[in-house]
Each structure stands twice: as structure tokens, then as C-alpha cells.
Amino acid sequence: INAEYMGTSSGMAGSPPPPSGEGGGSNACADGWERERVPRPTENIFCVTKQSYKNWYQKYFWSKDHENYLAASTSVGPASLSVLREKNQIRVILRTSQGFEKHILSTKDLSVPWYRSLFGLGPSVEAILHAIGVPRDVGSRLKYISSSRLRNALLNMEEQSLMCFRTYKFGCIYVAYGQASAAHILRNTQGSAAFEEFLDFLSGDPERTRVVLKDFKGYAGGLDTRYDADGPLSVYVKYPQQQAELMFHVSTLLHLSEHDEQQVDKRKHIGNDNVVLIFQDGDEITDPHILFPSRQTHVYISIRVEDDPCSGRRFYRVAVQNKAGVVRYGPELPESLLFEKGPPFREWLLAKMTNAQHASRRAPTFVAMISASHTQALRDLAERFC
């Protein structure tokens, strides 16, 4: 289990109006997709926390005297361990094929044999690993490595592992009134006033609601920044809550291929996004995964405008569909499924999308691939330094 992925959500929904409430009951589909429901109070919900994207090795280990260990083969595969012994606690980073685990152990909770205490050695590596529930054989196979080059390699590995918490790409599809086929939907080159207002709201920057892609220096999410091959503009968000950059593949802004009915150029971006927003002017599309099938997309978040004619306030109705295997994640939906337009809804939506991306990466489709990547990186380290 990757300790980066622990946490529960408190929810950040805006205050919805009482009318037009829709239940949040479970809505399982036979084709492996499920309509997200309002969770039970006792249900465990995954959320990204500040610990998820903190540079632990750089911040706590790098400039201090600490221990690094490597093993090419253990019962959990290749492994790496970093141990920082502080006055009353021990910081631990364990790297395996399952990811990185970060722990803080109190020294008073760890037993130390008298002969180690006699020489001021403190808890053994085996005792530290036992305290965090690691199989006994791992400690016996880990080899202490003092190389400064290994420190550089571990720092680089941490930086690479945190990129998924710093850069995100999402799909965003506009559906006009009466449109029911992907071919028609993907040919839209502009949206309604309500959709353009939503994109402005999503950007969060009234002075720069769209970014010019040519020579763009931020995270581009795979969009061309030299020749306008994917269109001249896009929606880009700086998300300070996670110190992250978000790029949206907006169907109306991506390059339109006039003679391509399937719009392959648009699909190659949106179809490779784990999370896709669908803004609907008309009736709800109940099965977006059928209209826009993709092996990569695991979450669809559908949004419709519902204005209150009495007060003139704008609300958004939200529905979420998750592919089988996506773990429950927050922040949760309110029972009414309605949000008033405003900063609380924008924060809820950005948190929902970023959490959805990480939750989808824990689905079977991605777990094996990510595990293989971790395994190969650790094997490379072991071959270089053991």
C-alpha cells in the first residue's frame, strides 16, 4: 500500500438550493461502470493530502546524515530503504514495486537489545521494518550503501514520482442541445455562452481565461506549443492547493480536422485522459463511456447548468461515473448533487478531478503498469550500486 494515498475527505460542496434534489443512490451498470452515489458516513474515501506531494527525501534526508539500503531481490521484489535517525523519532522511506511508503516512528516504541544500547546504535533495520509491517526477509537482504551517487539517484527518483502530483491533464467535452453522437459533438468549434462562462470560471484567472499555446512555457499536457498543431488556445489552471499545473484538452479548442469524421486528432488527447469533464447544454448523457469509449479514461464528470429563476443564482448539477476498479475518492457529492457557482464549487471540482486521477491509477488497468515501472527503476538502482 502506498502511504501517499491515505486520507479521508471532509467535502467542500457549496450550499445547494432545496428544490430539484436528486438521490445519490448506487447505480451499478452491467458494463463495468458505476454512477457515483453519496457515500455512507463510515465509508473510507481516498483523498490526496499534503504528505502525498511533499519532497520527503529532499526536505528531511538530503542534507542530513542518514542511511540508505538496497536489495535486488526480496519477498516484495527489489527494495530500497532510507532511514533518518532523529532525537526522539526515526523517519523511514521504503521503496518497493508498490510505490513509496513514508513513516515516522517514535523511538520509545521500538525495542533495542542491550548490546546495541551499549554502543549507542539504536533500533536495528530489522526492528524498524518489523514496526512498519515489512516481511522479515527484507531486512536481511538489504545492503547498506554509502555512495553519494545513490543519494542523487534517490533524489531524482523522488522527483519523478512526484510529477504525477504536480502536473495533470484532463479532457473537457462540450455537448450542445440535441447532440447524441460523438461525431457531431467533436465537430463543435465553439460552445454556448454557458459553456464559455464555465471555462472562464474553471480557469480561475479573469485576466487570462485562455492561454496561447505557441511558446507556452508551463505544463502543456502533450499539446503542441510550437506550430499550433492542436489549436492556438487552451485552458490552463495553476492549482496552489497542490502546487500543481492543470491543462485541459477542450474539445471546442482542439484542432478540427475538416475531413475526418472521427476527429482522431481530438480523440488522441481526450481519449488518453484518465478523467474527462462533460459539459451538457441539453439532457443528461447517461452513458458517456459508450459515446467516448477509451481504455485510458476511468472517470467521467458530467455538468449541467440549473439556474434558479427566482433568485437568478446559477447552479451546476454534477454526476460522476467511475470505471470498475476505481477506488472511492473524495470530496464527496452532496445529496442534492447541486453546487452554486462560486469558489467553493471550483475548489470542490478541482479536488475531485485530481483525486479521481490518482484513484483511477489504482485501478487494475494501471496498477500492473505502475508496479512494473517501480520494479524496473529499483532493479536499475540495485545493478548500479549493489
Counted beta strands: 15
Alpha-beta content class: alpha+beta
Helix content: 25-40%
- Taken in chain order, the helices and strands follow as EEHEEEEHHHEHEHHEEEHEHEEEHH
Rg, rounded, reads: 24 Å
Major β-sheet annotation = 10 strands, mixed
3D shape: elongated
Number of helices: 11
Distance between the first and last residues' Cα? 26 Å
Uncertain runs are 1-26
Query: What does the average pLDDT come to?
Result: 86
- Beta percentage is 15-25%
How do the strands and helices of this protein lay out in sequence?
Layout: E1 27-28, E2 33-35, H1 56-61, E3 67-71, E4 79-85, E5 89-96, E6 99-106, H2 114-118, H3 125-131, H4 136-141, E7 143-144, H5 148-162, E8 167-175, H6 182-185, H7 193-203, E9 211-212, E10 233-239, E11 244-250, H8 264-270, E12 275-280, H9 288-291, E13 299-307, E14 314-323, E15 338-340, H10 343-360, H11 364-385
Parallel strand pairs: 8-11, 8-12, 12-13
Antiparallel strand pairs: 1-2, 2-14, 3-4, 3-7, 4-5, 5-6, 9-10, 10-11, 13-14, 14-15
